[in-house]
Structure formats: structure tokens, C-alpha cells
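hey
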């Protein structure tokens, strides 16, 4: 299936979901409050999906994105609650928030570099390397918090996850900026071209003069950085940090990537498709929530959707191969 046809199919699915959820929920679904609620909820999953997508393009995966985000969030929370009242405003509060964010992003980037080094230089498989990192980072997060929630952040931090600019939620603006930057990296830079090449054929990429190890290292560095940015949005929206926040997001990031056209084998996929897939998933989630459907049932539904999408893609590929052979 071509990129244009995949995008067209996603647009049709989006319109179909919008119509279906509107019919099932009436005016509640089409209300401004519901759309604003979706705009606040989608960004953290969206940024995490971008972190997953870039590794999948190299035919890899990053199972540690949620654990990385939680550790980064805990580091930020510990700094922000280390001697300043939550209601603090002004330069003092803003300065502390900036220091905390920089520290959190540094930690998440460091985890990304560790993943990249294990995969590129130790030659570990991405799934094993990131699984090991996930377990290690989750353990560190639990040790730091003893399993408790850290809450009570300065007002400047809470604005990031709950504020708006001209009626547009700040989190969706952050997500759009992250998506745009990722799109530029993948479509308009040598690194992006090499990421696609490695995912398509790493051997040919190597013999073309590309340093595969360097590309993989930078890919996972970016993935770690994006996990940290997602953490900023997540903990500021919840006004708290914990070692096990967002555990269900891991499945959804893979689902959003695959649904958005990212090949599980690597080499294919665009940010625009991922964004459409995220909107579709968020509309389904919001619609089911308005209908009173259990969150646990919704998670089971995502698993079924992922299997269905993979089966459909397999059948389409086999059909196209047969047409080409004849």
C-alpha cells in the first residue's frame, strides 16, 4: 500500500470514527469541552508514540519509554519539592521548574544513550536491551520513591499540563511542536534518511558508507529525550509523579505507530500517519468513556485492534505480491 493510499485510508477511518462516536454519544461527543479534554489527554501518549516510532523505523523497539518517563518525572518531582511551597510564583518558582526539567531531560536522554550503546556497540537485540533497561530503571524509580507518590509542584509547572494559550491547551502545542520537529528530522535531514535506510536494509546501509552504530545511538538518544518531554507533560497534568504511571501506554504507543503506517519490520512510516492514528485512538477512547465502558475493557479492545491491524496488513501485502507475480 502506497503512502498516499495509507494516509487516505486513515482519513476515512477518522471520519468514520467521528461520525460513529457522534451518533452513539450525541452532542456530548461534539462539545467543546470534550474536544478540549481530548487535547489535554492525547499529548503525553502522542509524544511517547513519537519516541517509540523512531526506534521502530530502524526495525527496533524501545520498551523502556514509560519507565524512562517515570524516572525522569520522579527526578523532576524530587527537585521541585525539595524546599519550595507549591503555591510559589515568580522567578524563584520558574527557575526551580527549569532546573528540574533540565535534570529530568538529562536523565531520560542518558537512558536513551544507554539503550543505544547496548544495541549499537554490545550488539544486543533491541527488545532485550530495552527490556533490561526498563526493569533497571523501574527498580531505581521504586527505590527513590519507596512506591509513594510525590506531589505538590510549583504553579509554573502545573501550567504546562493544565494551562492554555488563546483557548488552546499548552500540552497539545507541545505535542505539535514535537511532532513537527520529528517530521523535519525524519524527512529533511541526513539522519532521518539513514534511519529509514537502516530499517530497510542495514547491510546495504553500512556498505553505502553510513555509520550504523552512530545512527542507532542517536535514534535511541532522541527516543529517550522524547520520553523525558512526555514526562514533563504527564507529571505537570497530574501534579504528581510515581514509579508506575502510564503503564498501559506502552501497548498504545506500538498500536498508534502500527496503525499510523509504521512498519513493524522498519524502514517505513511517517509522522503525519502517526498523528492521524493518535486522533483516531483518542476519539475512540473518549467516546467509550462517555458511554461508560470500563477502562479495562478498552485496554483489551486496543490489543484486539493491534492484532487486527497486523493481520490486515499481512493480507494486503500477500495480495499485492500475488498481483505483482501475475
Amino acid at each position: 500500500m502506497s503512502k498516499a493510499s495509507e494516509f487516505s485510508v486513515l482519513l476515512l477511518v477518522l471520519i468514520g470514527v467521528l461520525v460513529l462516536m457522534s451518533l452513539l454519544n450525541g452532542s456530548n461527543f461534539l462539545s467543546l469541552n470534550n474536544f478540549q479534554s481530548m487535547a489535554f489527554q492525547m499529548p503525553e501518549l502522542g509524544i511517547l508514540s513519537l519516541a517509540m516510532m523512531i526506534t521502530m523505523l530502524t526495525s527496533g523497539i524501545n520498551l523502556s519509554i514509560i519507565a524512562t518517563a517515570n524516572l525522569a518525572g520522579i527526578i523532576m518531582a524530587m527537585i521541585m519539592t525539595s524546599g519550595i511551597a507549591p503555591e510559589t510564583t515568580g522567578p524563584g518558582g520558574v527557575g526551580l521548574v527549569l532546573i528540574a526539567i533540565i535534570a529530568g531531560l538529562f536523565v531520560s536522554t542518558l537512558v536513551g544513550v544507554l539503550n543505544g550503546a547496548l544495541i549499537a556497540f554490545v550488539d544486543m537485540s533491541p527488545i532485550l536491551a530495552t527490556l533490561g533497561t526498563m526493569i533497571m530503571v523501574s527498580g531505581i524509580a521504586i527505590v527513590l520513591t519507596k512506591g509513594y507518590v510525590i506531589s505538590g509542584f510549583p504553579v509554573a509547572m502545573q501550567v504546562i499540563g493544565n494551562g492554555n494559550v488563546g483557548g488552546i491547551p499548552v500540552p497539545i502545542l507541545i505535542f505539535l511542536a514535537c511532532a513537527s520537529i520529528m517530521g523535519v528530522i525524519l524527512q529533511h535531514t541526513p539522519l532521518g534518511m539513514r534511519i529509514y535506510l537502516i530499517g530497510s536494509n542495514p547491510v546495504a546501509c553500512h556498505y553505502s558508507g553510513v555509520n550504523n552504530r552512530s545512527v542507532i545511538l542517536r535514534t535511541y538518544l532522541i527516543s529517550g529525550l522524547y520520553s523525558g518531554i512526555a514526562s514533563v507533560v504527564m507529571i505537570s497534568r497530574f501534579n504528581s509523579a510515581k514509579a508506575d504511571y502510564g503503564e498501559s501506554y506502552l501497548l498504545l504507543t506500538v498500536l498508534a505507530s502500527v496503525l499510523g503506517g509504521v512498519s513493524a519490520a522498519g524502514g517505513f512510516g511517517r509522522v503525519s500517519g502517526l498523528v492521524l492514528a493518535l486522533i483516531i485512538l483518542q476519539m475512540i477512547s473518549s467516546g467509550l468513556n462517555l458511554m461508560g465502558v470500563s477502562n479495562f475493557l478498552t485496554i483489551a479492545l486496543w490489543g484486539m485492534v493491534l492484532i487486527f491491524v497486523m493481520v490486515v496488513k499481512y493480507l494486503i501485502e500477500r495480495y499485492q505480491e500475488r498481483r505483482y507475480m501475475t
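The chain is about 75% helix and 0% strand. The chain has one domain: 3-325.
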